Amino acid sequence: MARRGRGRDSGGVTGNEGSDQAPAPAHVEAHGGRGGGASSARISTRLNWLRAGVLGANDGIISTAGLVVGVAGATTSRTAILAAGVAGLLAGSLSMAAGEYVSVSSQRDSERAALDLERRELAEEPEAELDELTDLLAERGLSRDVARQAAEQLTRRDALRAHARVELGINPDELANPWHAAFASLVAFTVGALLPLAAIILPGPSARVPVTVVAVLAALTLCGVVSARLGGAPTGRALLRNVAGGALAMAVTYAVGTWLGTST
Asked: Which of 31, 4, 14, 6 is nearest to 142 (CA)?
């Protein structure tokens, strides 16, 4: 989208100023469509999906564990606990899927609207858009001359794709898919919820809560470690937050369930 009147001077890597050679490395990096750029983008996308799956499973573990432990505090009826757990699993997974679908649909609509606007501006003001692309590349550290050459090469190859990647940060070939996101959230939450549900149903009445607590805390420890590794965060802090949050949720719901079970 054209930013008129900016008139930025050259900056960044001044050692290349005045060079007559074509900026092949800058071209490849800015375009993002060859070699390491495209590969890195695909890896980043996979990591984001994996991280979202781990977090979805984590939500399923904590919410279902809190629910079934709370009901177990109020009653020893396996049927009641199972009914509550299955209802929580279905409600949680469908809610996650619906929320993800709405969220990603809104994101995709915004991306499409931005691409449509960029397409119109390229048709109506091609020179202004070329100047803008030059400015953006210069802001990334290229000298003004090299940025101009790169902008011209990118524009000749595919002007819309160049502006989508450099200006908007969008890959037109990989717009977010709401159905994929919804299905992934549903599966992740369901997988996470099955663990506390099985742990609370399989043992006898006296062992239900202790077995569930141990199983849930172990699963949350694993999720905390994996999510920290994927996000590059300190493992200890992420693990502590995850385990403490799950333990607090089960403690509160069990206390409330026990109080309700004795008072009714």
From this structure: 14
